[in-house]
Amino acid sequence: MKNKFDRVVLRTCLIYAAIGGAWILLSGRVLFALAPDPELRVKLEIYKGWMFVAVTALLLFVTLRSQLHRLSQEAAKHRKMEDELRWKTAFLEAQVNSTLDGILVVDQRGNKILQNQRLNEQLKIPREIVENRDDTAQIQFVTSRTKNPEQFVERITYLYSHPNEVSRDEVEFKDGTILDRYSSPVIGKDGTHYGRIWIFRDISERKQADEKLRESEAKFRSYIENAPLAIFVANGDGRFVDFNAAALKMLDYDATSLKKLRTVDIHPDEDRELILQTHATLAAQKQVRGELRIKTGKGDRIWVLLQAVVVEGGLTMGFCQDITERKRMEETLVHERQLLRTLIDLLPETFYVKDLNSHFLVANKALAKHFGLESPSQIIGRSDADFYSAELAAEYRAAELKVLGGEPLIDHEGDGVSPAGRACTYLTTKVPFRDSQGRIQGLVGIGRDITERKRTEDSHLRLVTAVQQAAEAVMITDTTGKILYANPAFEATTGYSQQEVIGRNPSILKSGKHDQEFYQRMWTVLANGEVWSGRLINKKKDGTLFEEEATISPVRDANGRITNFVAVKRDVTREVTLENQFRQSQKMEAFGQLASGVAHDFNNLLTVIQGNASLLLNPQLRPEDHSGCSRQILQAAERAAGLTRQLLMFSRKHALQVVTLDLNEVVGNMTKMLQRILGEDIALRAEYNPKLPVISADAGMIEQVLLNLAVNSRDAMPKGGQLLISTSLENRAADSPQLPAGAPSGQYVCLKVTDTGYGIRPEVLPHIFEPFFTTKEVGKGTGLGLATVYGIVQQHHGWVAVTSEVGQGTTFQVYLPAAKGVPARSEAVAAPKLPRGNETILVAEDEPAVRSLVDNLLRRCGYTVLTAESGVAALDVWKEHRDKIQLLLTDMVMPDGMTGYDLAQRLRSEQPELKVIYTSGYSADIFGKDSTLIRDGHFLQKPYHPHQLARTVRDCLDQPPSGG
What we know:
The chain is an alpha+beta fold and 964 residues long. 45% of the residues lie in helices and 24% in strands. The strands form 7 sheets. The chain has a 5-stranded antiparallel β-sheet. A hairpin with a 5-residue loop joins strand 11 and strand 12.
């Protein structure tokens, strides 16, 4: 008020000064202009002064009155405003003190202006601190009670430095009190900052209630999420708005995809009518329960038990339980009941269930048939007394009382009479029938008529006894070759016990003497359902080889399918040995007959060689005739070598060695020898099919067959005759009557031997292939010739056919399976120019002429040759020249007791990479088929051609080292 009054006084004085100054200045100028006379101007100056005083007094009065009046009005207005402010302040203080919120008003510097009682109670501020009005002490006290003092002070400091900001946060105290703190600046209408107001509201109970609500909601949500049932909520449009994890898992959707669907979308289209009916029931009754199918996200169909209710807000809450497995079990149970009923009726055994009084509750068709009834329903409710005699029914009842007492009757075998009066043997089983508490409610019985089985068992027992005691080895396999049974004879033959071979393959007996093609042919015959017969060379458990004659037959079931194979085998090792010995003796017998013819040929050849050699030594022979004599000597020597090879081949003794053969070539080679054996009174003629395929056979055995048949024909023509040997190709279809049982269909090469002898009598013809059967006089034959032919042909999977007419002659036809490939022939080693070299060769040869020839030949080819007349002498040469020698050329048989093979082994023990060539005038067969010379393949049969020697030496030296 004081300041305002000073402003009014100052303003008045200034107005007065302005008006007075303006009056004096203006009036002086006007007076000077109107009154030039000084005296007049003096008078007028006096009047002007009085006038100035009067006018300025009037103006001052008016101004002061106006200013004082306005001040009076403002003072009254101010008093009114003060009264109103005091009223409002009182009202505000009353309102502040009566509010539930704590209120604190501070000025711009943070000094406390107003603080209500509620705040004191909330902050628990002591009265002495409140009355002291020490803001610092109050702040320190409140800060010490907060749970986070630093944050409390930091927020206050921040707001005082930012006076325009509004803030709201929560302050938590150590005693658990939580206050909602609100702070806002106090700004006048003119924008003046007067301070800041703080409002505190105790929200401890609300926070606790909220926390409990959150915990309750979380717990309830946890219950929902962890519930095994699928729970979902749908709105009025049927669209999913909420669901738990079980619902997502059951429906196989993710949350985003499921919220895009409606409830009708998750059901199969074919269930649409049922779904619409379910929705209608839910709309009418506000709840529904039923079993529905759901289509999952993967397209699977599952069954659910649905219970849905309409809740507040028009929402539908549904609970689903997956009952797919239960539905499947129910369907399975129904199916199993039907299946059980079907099986019971299909059982060949009689099946029944009886109550405690032995009345039938369940019966099958077999029991109805046993009783001579049409339907099992005709048995239900009746007892044995209705079908059997009183004595038999009483006997059955007595036995059943024991069963009803808890004593089962298992596989009771008894003889009796059926209701039809037929004597029979029955196998009966009766066991108690109990309820879920274990109480006996009746019995279950199964009966089987085993009359036929008993007869079959007796027959089977006799058969098993016969097989067990059979001298032949019997083996049964499945279709894959797994051994299922082997009899004691099998154990005795192979050395394997039955326990060792069951479940294994017959390949454990393989000896390696048959190639894969042999076994393939066998399995082809068996797979076609045919019987295979032949001979096998197998190996016992101890490694011993044995030969057996086997017949393998397929076993078929009732539908004609092959289920097993049965092999019946006989050890024929001793018989084969005897056959081989006999064949060799026959060869030797024929060899004696051959000797005279061969000696004649050799004498002729020696005459040629001796004569031409003498001419070469005759000085009178012209030089131009030397080449002719040499050529004749060479040709005669080659013919002599051929005769020697035939003799060695004919007399050799070895096991079966199958190769591809040209039968025409075998026959052609044998005819030269056969002519000498047959004699001059028998005309031998051969006819060949030029398009004959090869066969897989042992050349020596085929020659043996041809020899035996030729000798047999010779003996049938004691006064001479004609012998025709021919070859042909024939096809045999599976249904051909000429095809023996067990022989596969296909192409066969036929060797036919026809004579003009006296023939074979019809009563004798069936026995000609039997061992030791002969019609010749004692000492004229052994009866093994044709048996040997038969055995050899069987070994080669062929057969022999015979036609004969007494007085007209006999024809033998040998059929052998055609094979693929080319004949195994030895390649002719000939070259116009001898291969050369510069290596050092040690030659061990006891024959001086041969040693000299080889030495001369090899030196001409550029080699350095060291010679020795025996194995012992060769060792001496070796000691002196061991580092130079690269090849040993040695004869196999030498006079000092050391063979060529022994010599090679001694030298190779010192130098493993030494190359070796063996030579001999004997056949390689006499040295054994497993010898090194056969494995290495470097063997020269004497006599050999110079080109053959040179080529073999060069090939051996050029061969990579084998390490011995």
